[in-house]
What does this fold into?
Amino acid sequence: MPFSLHFSPTPLITAPSPLSKPFFLVPYYHTLYAPKSPPCSSTEHALTHQGKQEAFDRRPEDSQTLPLGLRRDAMPSHVAVIMDGNRRWARLRDLPVRSGYEAGVESLRKIVEICCKWGIKVLSVFAFSSDNWFRPKVEVEFLMSLFERGMQEDTGIFFRENIRISVIGDLTKLPKALQELMVNLEEATKNNTRFQLIVAVSYSGHYDVVQACQRLALKAKCGLIEPSDINVSLMEQELETNCTEFPHPDLLIRTSGEFRISNFMLWQLAYTELFFAQSLWPDFGEAEFLKALLAFQQRQRRYGV
Amino acid sequence: MWHLLHVTIHLCYFAINIANALESHLISKGLLRRYKSLHISKLQYLAIVIESEDCRTSNVIELLQWLADLGVKHVCLYDMEGILKKSKDFILEKFDGATLFQENDVLLDQPLMTLEFASFSDGKEAVAKAANVLFMKYLKSGSTSSYQGEQIFTESQMGEALKTVGGNGPEPDLLLVYGPARCHLGFPAWRIRYTEIQHMGPLKSMKYGSLIKAIYKFTMVQQNYGK
It folds into this structure.
């Protein structure tokens, strides 16, 4: 089934809505092409009950679309991406910075599509770091509106393609409307199982560790755990990546030729294969992604043992 | 078709490896001009991550000697299992040009290189211990906060708590990974927010020219720290 994003004035939302929140009706300028094969989440829900979820996740068309050289058994379950280079991309083309960010969103959509096709279960993207709040106010406001617009526009796609959305980061700093949209979208897609997109917004690795400590402290204070119980394993459970079955990325890709993690998932990346791509994020496409995956599959990884 | 593709890819990688080896040789002989003068002062603190299985003290000492020759003043040696930590006395004895890094040491220019030895216990385990320290302080403070959204700890408090348990050192400017996998193997995560990371390949195949190239690349980087 083709995975495509097309926009037109006619609204067509087919997915069942567990909530009655108005935002489901919001994407009125967006349309869905009727898929040729199963795919709305009610059908997928039925398949789950019949224990055929596995068959659905490995649909025949998915296994046929794997490029030559890539092994399905060695695909990473969780890929993380630092989407760097949007502003540079715009500057190189004498375009305003916002064009770079918009091009970045398109690039993200393509990579999500490829992940779904190639059987990667989780994609985490570093959309906005805690440090990014220090960018010019106009730029930050544009990014917030871009996140809001993007999530609204693609809501139908998330349901049609059975994609779960999770958001990690300090959401209290975001505009209220965006916070609400994100929380609603997480709740509405939480039962989607084909693919999970984790969007890190107002996030940093330091923040994640501190909030995990905080949660543990509150649990200990309430008597749910003993202070002496606080260990590495409990810390792991309280990190914001506990929203996924695969909290540790197998592969991290950073674009634009920079060779650092920039405060992203510091704890979770201990054994993650690091791939630093030269291209800027809006130019990062299937070919480069394939290169990263091939490099990942060729590495001899001992996971520190 | 598959075999042809396989052979082609192998030939490409072979050619790349030959080119890299040649470049490394030229760099170490000082024949490539741009690598001749390194702005080594930009490299305040260097971390070396080594796969525990590949930890050969002879290679480590040779590497340290190269770094000393280049003028690197502060180095942290890390391997997950703490093999380097256990060999610390031996390494310091065999490598004359170093002293043990003390936590309160300021990163100033000094005649001898300072060496820090770290392992997994200084990473995630230290953070868990620091979490305990923070919690005990929180209890003692008698705070009545139970609202999950309220911030009761800060990043700087975590930093201080890590210092208390001996898990907080300087943030390395550059981290070199020697091993088959391109990952940092649990190096204290709290310390590598903005650290440049370079994968150097197995320790037994280390090359002086590659080391110079990695440091040179680092000195050319401009960071904007997310701003």
Remarks:
- The first helix of chain A runs from residue 41 to 49.
- Chain A touches chain B through 52 residues (CB under 8 Å).
